[in-house]
Design brief:
- The protein is an all-alpha fold.
- The longest helix is centred in the middle third of the chain and has 27 residues.
Length: 125
Amino acid sequence: MPTDPVFAENWTSALGAALVCFLAFLPLYMFRAMGAADVKFFSLLGFWFASAAPMLFVFVVASLMLAAHTVIQALSAQWPGVPLIWVKRRVAKPSLEAAPVRIRNGQPYAAYMAFAALIWVVMNA
């Protein structure tokens, strides 16, 4: 059993970690490599953990999951017969009255960060 606390011990370290995480991910948002919600969620995790080890774990594990998601999505676009339920996009049938359909190109990075944070908490609780 680990002896270190899983979550932040005081407000100053929590706020400092949240600010560092926000400033670290803000350039990714500015260059449109990441959504605003992803930046805010990573800042929230920084506030929650307030330590470098869990944040590095979350970043690496979530990035690996996102890379796998991206590869699977690219393969499903290349070979439509690949049964990948979770990455298929729904496209509405065109009609004269319907607004144009916007296909989302983003990846669910915040969901993978949440899953990685859950893994960290379970491993270190």
